[in-house]
Structures are given as structure tokens and as C-alpha cells.
């Protein structure tokens, strides 16, 4: 169950409103409820990036190139910033592997307008405008998720958290597609 923890890699705990972009092997761990994490990876450069967006949209009309102090808590700013950073590194959108996780309706309202749903829709809208294809996703529903992302391989391991109990299996979400509720 905890095989991903047996690494000697540096570990970063990603909190809401944070981004981690690295060309060094790193294990990044985050826990998601209604928040959303988008991961990006480029095989040629082994550069990985992950964000933890808490709210769907920023109220300013900035371009997210030089973020304001709270920019990364907004899904639109975080994803746009990551795309801009990859571009500055000479990485074309067609060479970015993208995965998306989280966006739960933690209040179990099943609303099509919950914060979780809005976070997922916002991320998918930005990725769609950039003509990026999501190769793996685990989004929506009413449970939280623990995510472990490896910046140097692009691998993402997911543990679903149901009713406060940890689900016993860690599911690698590599190269799987699922629907985007």
C-alpha cells in the first residue's frame, strides 16, 4: 500500500494555492477535496509540474505570467502559469502529457455548479483552449483523494478517500482516460 513512500526522493507536500515545477526527481504529495490538481509532464526534458487549485477563476483579468500573491489558489491562473512556464522552457503544448484529479462535491449536493465541478470545468476549458489532451483523469464524485506525483516520470498514484477511511489500493492512473463528469 505504501510502496510509493519507499523512495529516497525529496518529498514536497503541496498545499492549496501552490504549484511545484521541477526538473529534479521529486515526489509531490497532495490531498484534494473540491480542489483540483493538474499535472503536466514532458518526456524529453523530464520536467514535471503540478498545481493545487482551490477556486475556479481569478477575479482579475491578468495574463497569469507574473502572478499576484494569491494567483495559484485559482485554477485558471495556476494552469495558465504552468503552460506559460513550459512554453518559456521551449516545450510545445503537443509535447505535454496532462492528467487531472480532484474536483469532488464534498458537500454531496450533486450540483452541476459546485466548487469542485467548477474547478474541473475551468481546468478543462483552459487545457482545451491550449489544445491539450488529458490522458488520465479521476474527477468529481463526493470523496477526497490523496495524490502522489513524480516530477521526473509524470507518474501519478491515487488513493481515494471514502467516508474518512483510506481506500486500501493505490491506483496508478497512467495512460488511462475516464469521463470528465
Short description:
The protein is of the alpha+beta class and 181 residues long.
In words, what does this structure look like?
By secondary structure, the chain is an alpha+beta fold. Helix content is 16%, strand content 30%. It has helices spanning 75-88, 115-129; strands spanning 11-13, 19-22, 27-32, 36-42, 47-51, 97-102, 134-139, 144-150, 156-162, 165-166, 171-172. Strands 1, 3, 8, 9, 10 and 11 form a six-stranded mixed sheet that branches. The protein is globular, with a radius of gyration of 15 Å.
Query: What oligomeric arrangement do these chains adopt?
Result: single chain
The CATH architecture classification is 2-Layer Sandwich
**What is the domain total for the residues?**
1
**Major sheet attributes:** 6 strands, mixed
Total DSSP E strands: 11
Taken from the alpha-carbon principal axes, the silhouette is globular
What percentage of amino acids are in beta strands?
A: 25-35%
| Helix count, DSSP H or I runs of 4 or more residues | 2
Q: What is the CATH class designation?
A: Alpha Beta
Keywords:
2 helices; single chain; 30% strand; 181 residues; 60s Ribosomal Protein L30, Chain: A; six-stranded mixed beta sheet; disordered C terminus; globular; five-stranded mixed beta sheet; alpha+beta
SSE layout and pairing:
Layout: E1 11-13, E2 19-22, E3 27-32, E4 36-42, E5 47-51, H1 75-88, E6 97-102, H2 115-129, E7 134-139, E8 144-150, E9 156-162, E10 165-166, E11 171-172
Parallel strand pairs: 1-3, 6-7
Antiparallel strand pairs: 2-5, 3-8, 4-5, 4-6, 8-9, 9-10, 9-11
